[in-house]
Design brief:
Layout (H helix, E strand, L loop, with lengths): L1 E2 L9 E5 L5 E5 L11 E5 L5 E4 L2 E8 L2 E11 L2 E10 L4 E4 L5 E8 L2 E8 L3 H18 L4 H24 L4 E4 L3 E9 L6 E8 L2 E11 L4
Antiparallel strand pairs: 1-2, 2-3, 4-15, 5-6, 6-7, 7-8, 8-13, 9-12, 10-11, 10-14, 14-15
Amino acid sequence: MRLSLFAKNALTLVVLVSMSGCTQLVLGLGLDRPPPPAMRWIPAQERGTTWRNGSQFVAFDSLGLRVEAAFEEQRSDRLLVRVRLVNDSSPTFDVNPAKFLCISGIRDQAGVEEWTDTASDPAEELRKVREWEQRLRQSGAKTVEDQTDLEMSLSNAVEGNKFWTEEALRRNTLAQGRTAEGIVVFPLQRKARDIQLAIPVSGRVVGLRFEQVPVKTK
């Protein structure tokens, strides 16, 4: 079963490729009840924020290292966060999104719940997307309907390939005076309210705080 990261609607199209190569489409469940509200992050700190391109970034700036993060959007059960790193002092340092953590929790009358999630590894996600695309191209289509479904699935695969190649923050070595920026993907913990990103970089762990809130609908 393949669930597209790139579906933005409440009802997600799930693509099933059977062993015989026949492609089937199944519409997500939940037709008899309204979908849960989308979630977003807002800065949980008044100081240390900056606006750029219409987004409010939570920022850390110390000793020539600047790390910024801003909520981008929710897609299906994942949250996309734009992260920007600037190296103004160190000769070089390693940027590895697969080691970024999202520590989220909620405190209420029932007590405290906490989750620690690792960001998606862009290299691994890209490998999965390319394997999926290869299987789709080898599966073939026996009817016109199958061909339509196959083309839709291939379109999702191509979009996924582009996302993890061009938009996601990839692992790299950041030289002095250079900047790296891209999307980091975390799983959605719908119950969480308190969010802290833990970003290991240049021999330290940078913490950036957010609050998770439902998106208000009209």
